[in-house]
Amino acid sequence: MIAYVSNTIVFTLTVQQGGMTNTSLGKIHVSPATLFIIPITFQLIMLAVYDQFIVPFLRKRTGYVGGIAHLQRIAIGFASMILAAVIAAVVEKKRKEAVVQMSLFWLAPLVLPAWRGRRDVVHRAPGVLQQRGATGHEVDRHGVVLV
């Protein structure tokens, strides 16, 4: 259940803090209830970048199919969730101290670490339960090498 903490942080604080910030982007007014679309869009973009560029680079350097070991990925994910909570607390503190309404873009630094934590812990953690073959590649329970 702790793996879903980053979802709670991102979606709850995005809407809650968005209700207290200036959500105008020029002549466009963004409703606070639709602000959760920003982290989802960012996640879609970052997943494509991660899978196309970062994983192949790490695969060449480490030899792991997924770029890094699963336990390393989970540790990075949990650290990212902690970072997301700290950033959310700092933004909330600054928002409460602000005399004028803060810009919508103050919520942007929260998105990257929360995305990283969610991607690593929620989506990739089940891979830890897979066995490893003699070559170090991941194999499923039938002995088929996963690429």
TrEMBL record:
It is found in: Membrane. Coiled coil: none annotated. InterPro entries: MFS_trans_sf, POT_fam. It holds the Pfam family PTR2. Keywords: Membrane, Transmembrane, Transmembrane helix. One of its GO terms (molecular function) is transmembrane transporter activity. It is a multi-pass membrane protein. Its main location: membrane. The chain crosses the membrane at residues 30-50, 71-92. GO terms for cellular component: membrane. Belongs to the major facilitator superfamily. Proton-dependent oligopeptide transporter (POT/PTR) (TC 2.A.17) family. This is Uncharacterized protein.
